[in-house]
Every structure is written in structure tokens, then in C-alpha cells.
């Protein structure tokens, strides 16, 4: 009886040792995977910032107010093109803000403005359309022509006369990208978790001295 107990104890030891080795190996493997993912995340975030490039941005004073002249460079992913051609519209929103530095307090936020372009395809008549939300739509024969209108938008009055103090210098922050909030819910859920649907610029900041 004593021999039986002693022998069975000896047989269990190699099994226990093997389990411990396997557990250590799995833990090491998990740590290696986590480190690999952690190193990859910053690169992915940086790549997403480059999906829209702001190639031109400046402010000009006019009788009706202060106008933004801008241009953008971007391409739609294959999934976005298929979505448009199936009749689902895409929206592209541009946001701009003017802030004035103050040494004694927080920066003064003088102006904030937002404008959205809507792009869609009429499947029945095979026609593309683009319109600034709240205005009249313009027809286009091809997707490239429609996108050109969004990439090279008309000058936009971002602030009326009197909104800025003449002679003061303002920091202007501009950002543009596809607005996922306008997508239908089923597509929206997929878009927020799919890198193919990341289409936005990083913030571009420049200075403007009000005239």
C-alpha cells in the first residue's frame, strides 16, 4: 500500500512539471503578442491621420466677411465607392475655429463654423450629386468629377464682418473628413470598427491677422 502511494506520487510529478512548462510558454506567447500589438498601434494611428491631406488653407477678407480658401487630397476606399454606388450618401464635414491668445486667461474662441458636403448617386438615372447641406445640389456624370468638387470646394464665408478684431492675430484650426454620424446605423457600426472607413485629416493650424 505504501509502495503504491509512493509510486503514484512519482508518476504525477512529470505531469505537473509539463503543465507548468506549457503555462509558462503560453504566458510568454501572450506577452509577445501584446507587445507586438502595442508597437503596431501608434503606426496605425499615424497612418489614419494621413487619409486626408489639407493642401491649401488661407483666410481672405471680403465685403461679406472672412472667407476660407481650401483644397484637400484624398481617395475613397473600395468599400466607400461601393456604398455610394449602391445609393447610400456620404457626407464630408469641414470644421474651422478662430482663437485669440490671451496671456492673462484662456484663449478666446472667437469663431467656430462647420460645413458639410453630401455626395450621393441616383441609381435610376445613373447620376452623381453633390450639395452643401442647406443649398442646391449639383449633378455630375462621374464620381471623379463629384469628388473634385469636394476636394476643391468653393470659398466659404466662415465669419461675418465684425466677428474678428482688425489688427489682432488669430490661430486658425482646420479639419476635414468623412462624417460617419450621417451613415445608416448598420453601416455606421461597421465603419467605426473598420480602418477602411477612416477618412479624415489631422488638425491644421495657422495664423491669420484680421484685416
How would you describe this structure to a colleague?
The chain starts with a helix and ends with a strand. The chain has 4 helices and 9 strands, in the order αββαββββαββαβ. The radius of gyration is 28 Å and the shape is elongated. By secondary structure, it is of the alpha+beta class. The protein has 2 domains: 1-49; 52-209, no CATH class. The strands form 2 sheets. It has a 6-stranded antiparallel beta sheet with strand order 6-5-4-3-8-9. A 3-stranded antiparallel beta sheet has the order 1-2-7, with no helix packed on it.
What key attributes describe this structure?
elongated; alpha+beta; 3-stranded antiparallel sheet; disordered N terminus; 35% helix; single chain; 211 residues; 35% strand; 4 helices; 2 domains; 6-stranded antiparallel sheet
